[in-house]
Amino acid sequence: DRIKHIRNFSIIAHIDHGKSTLADRIIQLCGGLTERELKEQVLDSMDIERERGITIKAQSVTLDYRAESGEIYQLNFIDTPGHVDFSYEVSRSLYACEGALLVVDAAQGVEAQSVANCYTAIAQNLEVLPVLNKIDLPQADPDRVAQEIEEIIGLDAVDACQVSAKTGLGMEALLERLVRDIPGPRGSAEAPLQALIVDSWFDNYLGVVSLVRIFDGTLKKGDKIRMKSTQRDWEATEVGIFTPKRRPTGILRAGEVGFVVAGIKDIHGAPVGDTITHAKTPDVERLPGFQKVKPQVYAGMFPVSADDYEAFRDALEKLALNDASLEYEPENSDALGFGFRVGFLGTLHMEIIQERLEREYDLDLLTTAPTVVYELAMDDGEIRYVANPSKLPDMANVDEMREPIVRASILVPQEFVGNVIAECEQRRGTQLDMQFLGSQIQLTYELPMSEVVMDFFDRLKSISRGYASLDYGFERFEAAKLVRLDVLINGDKVDALAAIIHRDHAHGRGRALVEKMKELIPRQMFDVAIQAAIGGQVVARSTVKALRKNVTAKCYGGDVTRKKKLLEKQKAGKKRMKQVGRVEIPQDAFLAVLKTN
Ligand code: GTP
Fold it and tell me: Which end of the chain is less crowded, N or C, counting CB atoms within 10 A of the terminal residue's CB?
């Protein structure tokens, strides 16, 4: 009977449509939070998440809800990240649920990524309840947005819940609908234990903490448990729920969601997607796990000061404990010295990791332009994968070079569709489909991943006044005419500045790149020649003229405070510069190739 009163659900929402606000409201209505605590948006717990206002890791919270009927329900809300870089985490969270709330901003409309996540939920047999949020806004148009939900996603939205997570309007009705329409889990507390690891992370005091969904059986503190993937046994030293704080309860039964700690020191000992059973029931079947996520972009990261190399390695090791998608291996650059080549899910993931390394570990790092993974068919039949332009083998031995292609789905209001099509064409896209859905148009394109992962999303936003939305996924590798663009500074090739680009764009990009770099490299005591070359042939050049002595003299003048300020500014700027040969190159210049579209 207990299991009939459990509701496991996620919230699918586009960034900014109000998922965290809604979740906090639900927590508050169930007595979990005061109004003041509510202000702090408890679910986004990482500092960087809070600052950027985005959710990265999945979290969960268990709540008691007293329905109008007087019955008490246990609600398990499993949070999901909102950004496309982390969409794999969404399907993981959904796996632990019987239902999902699709939250759409009633003043905005449906966004591409919510559509994709919604399809995942439907494919996994979840009950999806549409929720129109922000109906307190004067520009809210719930009828239009409901129609959009029906046309774009195909969900019946005539009587979708209309709420304002901000004011609390409509929230009780939403919770009633939730317990009425989302089915309870199936399973039996008496059956052998079968639990799925939805997420694992490393805690400095406890070791690995795993978020689990119990499908069958009962997990108790002190139980001898077995990880199906490694066949290793552990003792469950703590079992409990999140409220959202970790609260030991000593027991989790079929249908429930909570955590288990078992003295595991390495995150690979409790891998996400693994099945847990008891040591005494080793024959329990493994649940279908999740696809392991592979990094999509790679960049070189180098400490500005060589003395920081060891500290950098330790920091990466620590971050990787909590982030199974982070990969790294040592890299040695002629220009930048010893560092690491690091793999990321996307450029947002990269920015977050870089920021954490700098803030939490106090490291000054230089990051090279991110690059996707290329597939190389060698003339001896070998297939190689290269994610570092400077490590391309001799092209004479390469039969074919292939680039990753993504299938992208873009939703955009009609008035901006021309801009979006032009942008896709310019990025070598092929249109597969175009549909009019409600007041939006859905475009389906195949695009080279290299054109998408860099600044495509930002560009889409800026050419559509913020209205376009994007979802994409890897499709396949496809042969392309690609070349390596080398950059020479005062005649020396700088390996960390090399880039792989399409041959038809190479000359234009080369010119744009040297111009951009000319703006970014500060003037020095001598002329600095910047050249772009393809296969040893220079295709573009520019020069940063030497400083003239009298200019500096005038600029610094006699004013001591001003001079001090300038010097301080220079020092701060210097932190992220690297001496390459005789020339100081700032961080921005390493990323200049991204800004040449
Ligand atoms: P991610 O965590 O990045 O996925 O974003 P989110 O979807 O959780 O959005 P969040 O809850 O942070 O809300 C985004 C913005 O919308 C915030 O400024 C909220 O205050 C605001 N907001 C949320 N719900 C409502 C609402 O019902 N009405 C109004 N007017 N504003 C709302």
Answer: N
Spatial separation of the C-alpha atoms in residues 104 and 109, rounded to whole Å? 6
Task: Please give the backbone phi and psi of residue 339, each rounded to the nearest 5 degrees, phi first.
Answer: -160, -155
- Dihedral pair phi/psi, residue 418, rounded to 5°: -60, -45
Decide if 82 contacts 111 (C-beta within 8 A). Answer: no
**For ligand 1, which residues put their CB under 6 angstroms from it?**
13, 15-21, 44, 53-55, 82, 133-134, 136-137, 164-166
Give the predicted TM-score (pTM) of the model: 0.75
Which residue's alpha carbon is at the smallest distance from atom 13 of ligand 1?
A: 18
Q: Give me the phi and psi of 132, to 5 degrees please.
A: -95, 115
Query: What is the CA(161)–ligand 1 centre distance, in A?
Result: 17
Q: Taking the alpha carbons of 111, 114, 118, 120 in that order, is the dihedral positive or negative?
A: positive
Q: Where are the beta strands (DSSP E) in 449-561?
A: 469-479, 482-489, 492-493, 499-502, 528-534, 537-544
Which atom of ligand 1 is found nearest the CA of 24? 11
**Mean predicted confidence (pLDDT) in 567-587:** 68
CA of residue 257 to ligand 1 center, whole Å = 26
pLDDT beyond 90 at 92: no
Which residue, by CA, sits nearest to atom 28 of ligand 1?
Answer: 134
Grouping H, G, I as helix, E, B as strand and the rest as coil, residue 385 is strand
Complex prediction ipTM: 0.96
User: Residue 338: CA atoms inside 13 Å, Cβ hemisphere, count?
Assistant: 10
